[in-house]
Amino acid sequence: MAFLTLRDFKEAETHIAPHIHRTPVFHSETLSRLTGHDVWLKAENLQKTGSYKVRGPLNVLAGMPKEERERGLICASAGNHAQGVARAARQYGVPAVVVMSRAVKPAKLDATRGYGAEVIIHGEVWDDAYAHSLEIAKERSLTYVHPFDDPRLIAGQGGVGMEFIEDVPDLDAVLVPIGGGGLISGCAMAIKAINPKVRIIGVEAAGAPGMKKSVEAGQVVTLDTVGPMVDGLVVRRVGEYTRKVVEAFVDDILLVEEKTIFDTVPWVMERLKLVVEGAAAAPIAALRAGLPSLPGGSKVGCVLSGGNLDVSQLTGLSWN
Hints:
Blueprint lengths: L5 H11 L8 E4 H7 L2 E6 L11 H8 L3 H5 L2 E5 L2 H13 L3 E5 L5 H9 L3 E4 L4 H15 L2 E2 L6 H7 L1 H9 L5 E5 L4 H13 L4 E7 L4 H8 L22 H10 L2 E5 L1 H15 L5 H11 L10 E6 L16
Parallel strand pairs: 2-10, 3-4, 3-6, 4-5, 7-8, 7-10, 8-9
Antiparallel strand pairs: 1-2
């Protein structure tokens, strides 16, 4: 498969922009003082559906033949992709089926149903739900919308990076969370197309380092086990296409301990006044832990990928 170009991202923008927010970018004095860098935050937690995930399905549906759309859509999701597909399907007036694992948070489950999707619960993690969704797609002749390993979807997600670098053109580095790799693939290709000097740094949960291991191996590696759940960061197998993109466009991948990510969620609420879920907190967690190897005073961007936090997740988290 060919890599995406700036033209692909611009075209996707024309399909998506009428239906989403251009989310704000905030400068953080708190993080800048704490880290010695100049820190900027792209707040996709304020996006419609509460995350960047609505962008990709809108672009996929825009380019999908009418007969494929009208058969109905299906996907597997931990929650945010589910809401994105459900909302995009409602926008186009077509039915959607979403398969979610038993790890789904009640808030994401309720929101997905609220957008009109049929929800089926199956398996312990996303990979289990994904396998089951493929069976259902075949049985019902539904059109599949993959959560990360589809260039059309990635062209939509890349709008996050394109907007970020347009709003803050002199960024030195951008930190992006990694689950299956769709967001960082889109951000990396879009940002590098505009300014190839920007360092793109991925952040994975230490208990689910699927992308880092796959890039090191030169092929996609399936993890036997995954660590504690950080919503949006836990998959056993990253994408084939996204692995190739990350290998070509991403400068570094950092691993952050799950406890550090969990502790960062309430810290962001208390100190930055923003509600973020675990995946969105990961880049800030990496900064707080001093993990990026960057010159002092670097202009650093963090993508806050979503804010669909179930309040029950706050139980037991430390407020530092």
